[in-house]
Give the backbone structure.
Amino acid sequence: MDAQAQILLAAFLAGLVAIAVTVAIEKFGGVIGGILGTIPTTIVPAAAFMWLAEPNSDAFDPAMGMVPVGMLLNAIFLWMWRVVPPRIPSWSFGKRLAMITTINLSVWFAGAALSVTLFSEQASMAVGLAALIVGVLLGLWISLEHKPSPRGKNRVGPFTLACRGIAAATAIGLAVWLSQLGSPLLAGMASVFPAIFLTSMVALWIAQGEEVPSGAVGPMMLGAMSVSFYALLATFTLPEYGVAIGSVITWIASIGFVSVPAALWLRFHGNRRVEA
C-alpha cells in the first residue's frame, strides 16, 4: 500500500472511530461508553501495515514499545479535561472551552516532546510495559473519584456527527503525513497525537455540556490501556500467526484482559459508591 493510500485509510478509520466514541458515550453514558469507545481500533491496521512493510525488522518492536508511552501521555491528556475546567473562570462558553483546549494541548505537546527525546530511538518492550502498568494504575486511581457519568440528553444530528468524523480524519491524516516526512520528532509526536480524544471531548462539550465528557474521563483512561496491551502483544502474535490471525487474536485478548476487567471494575466500584 502506497503512502497516500495509508493516509486516506488512516483518516477514514479515525473518522469512523471519532463518531463511534462520541455516540457510545452519549448513548451509554461515561462508564460503558468510555470503555466501548477506547477498544483497539486504529492501532489494528497501523500495527498490521507496519509489520507488512518491514516483516522481521528490528524497527517493529521499538515502534510498538513506543505506543504505551503515547497512550500514557494521552491518558494524562484526558485527565486534564477533569482537572483544568474547575480552575477556569466562568467566562463565555466558547472562550472557556478554547482556553481549556489550549492548556490541555500545551501540556500534551510538552510531554510529547520530552517522550520523543527520551524514547523515540530506544523505546523497548520494558519501557512499553512500564508505561502500560503506570497507565493502568493512573486510570484506577482517577476512577476512584466519584464523577457522574450520565448519558447525553441532546439529540445529535447527522451533520454534527459528520463534522466530528471529518475533524478527526483531518487530524489523523495530517499526523500520518507528518510521520512520513522522516523527522523523528515529528513522527513520534504525530504517532501519539490524541486527535480522536480531542475531537471527542470537544464535541461532547459542545453537544452535551461539561458533565458528560467529565464523567467519561476515568473510563476512557482505563479503556485506552487496551491499545497499549494490543501493541505489546502484537510483537509476539503477528510474527507467530501472521497479520490476519495474529490481529484477531491480539484484538480479542486486549478486550478480554483489559477492556472487560476495566468495565467490571468501574461497575463494581460504582455500585459500591451507590450502596455507601
